[in-house]
Amino acid sequence: MNPALPFAFFRRFTEHLLALFYPEVCQMCREQRATFAQSYICESCRTGKTGIKWVEPPFCECCGLPFLGDITVTFECFNCRDQEVHFRTARSAAQFSGVVKEAIHRYKYNHASWFEPFLADLLITAAKPSFASGDWDFIVPIPLHWRKMRQRTFNQSTRIAQHLSRATRIPMNTRLLKRVLPTATQTRLSRAERAANVKRAFAFHGTESLTNARIVLVDDVLTTGATASACAKLLRQNGAAVVDVWTVARNILK
User: Fold this and answer.
1) Predicted pLDDT at 74
2) For the residues 40-69, what does the mean pLDDT come to?
């Protein structure tokens, strides 16, 4: 059986079910028409002043930090120059602002599951072309600690990574990493505090050999890259040859 068929059936079933309870109105502006297929986000909210801001060059060659200006040569941002980064590259689909920021917050903290296809499509649109020429072994979502998992009931990174896995046919592996410490939220922490916060938060939990493996780490938002770098370090210490990072959104730490 085609593995996409059960997912397509579930998506159609969910669409009909939500239509019974939610009018076809944009859940951002509450004014324009928007359907389940649009994740209840109208075209005006997607393309307007607070709409999707795609991350495009020029940006840091290592972490993908956008640079506002004209640069014709490759460059590395001060954040990557000042710390040891264990992933090869990190890239994000869109800036963590406006409609993207609102959708992520409501998806994670208010169980607004209808935003999931919107967020997944952003990631797939930006990331899928980069996998066309390489042999990738696993997509690995950043894990949640079991306490936060119990509170939230789902790991947004795993859910989004499932969509990317289906679109790219790269198998997802959730066994390799485990979050062993319930770290404080990173939202209001500085770069140094973020790095210290996640220093011992993760552990390698895999049993299979990662010798020369090429791995894609997936998360919802990247700010300084401290979490992704901590996870990449464990994967590389256990044999991975390449670890790249993809996130839905890129937050720019002020």
Assistant:
1) 72
2) 93
How many C-beta atoms surround the C-beta of residue 225 within 10 A? Answer: 28
What's the length of the chain?
Answer: 254
Pick from 219, 22, 194, 41: which is nearest to 127 by CA? Answer: 219
Q: How many of the other CB atoms lie within 10 Å of CB of 44?
A: 16
Would strands 242-250 and 214-222 be described as parallel, antiparallel, or unpaired? parallel
Count of domains observed in the chain = 2
User: Alpha-carbon distance 14 to 39, whole Å?
Assistant: 12
Contact 102, 221 (CB under 8 A): no
Q: What are phi and psi of 8, to 5 degrees?
A: -65, -40
DSSP state of 201: S
**What are the structure tokens assigned to 61, written together?**
């060659």
Let me know whether 140 and 14 are in one domain. no
By mean pLDDT, which of 38-52, 125-139, 237-251 is the weakest? Answer: 125-139
- Could you tell me if 12 and 135 lie in one domain? no
pLDDT tier at 208, thresholds 50, 70, 90 = confident
> Which tens digits make up the pLDDT trace of 90-101?
999 999 999 999
Report d(CA 157, CA 169) in Å as an integer: 17
- Coil, helix or strand at residue 62: coil
